Amino acid sequence: MSTIKETLVPEFSDWQHLMKLVKNAAEKDQHEMLLTMMMTADERDALVARVNIFNELLKGEISQRQISQMLGVGVATITRGSNELKSRSEEEKQTLLELLSANK
To answer: Which positions does the record tag as DNA-binding (predicted)?
Structure first.
């Protein structure tokens, strides 16, 4: 009986590994298949809501409560998105707004 224990380490251990996987899939036009397989329908819906939260917060035309009602998510969810944006530079926020605007 062997007393040596193998240390198991996942191949994808951090966010950057995942981003590289998504980038590689996008370069092969396989990103939709990859992301659809990796996320449940609820997770995909939550991601769509998050994108809409950022979009509405960056536009600044309606209140957080109105965003909450429009998207059917809690005010706390909007607040988390708002806090994430507050932690970002103006340049990052502008880049995100441009990305969101370009994909309408």
So the answer is: 64-87
pLDDT single digits (tens) 19-68: 999 999 999 999 999 999 999 999 999 999 999 999 999 999 999 999 99
pTM given for the model: 0.83
What would the CATH number be for the domain defined by 40-102? Answer: 1.10.1270.10
Cα end-to-end distance, the chain, whole Å: 62
DSSP 7: P
| Predicted confidence (pLDDT) per residue in 19-28, tens digit | 999 999 999 9
DSSP assigned state of 28: T
Tell me 6's DSSP state. P
User: Domain spans of the chain?
Assistant: 40-102
Q: How many CB atoms lie within 10 A of CB 78?
A: 21
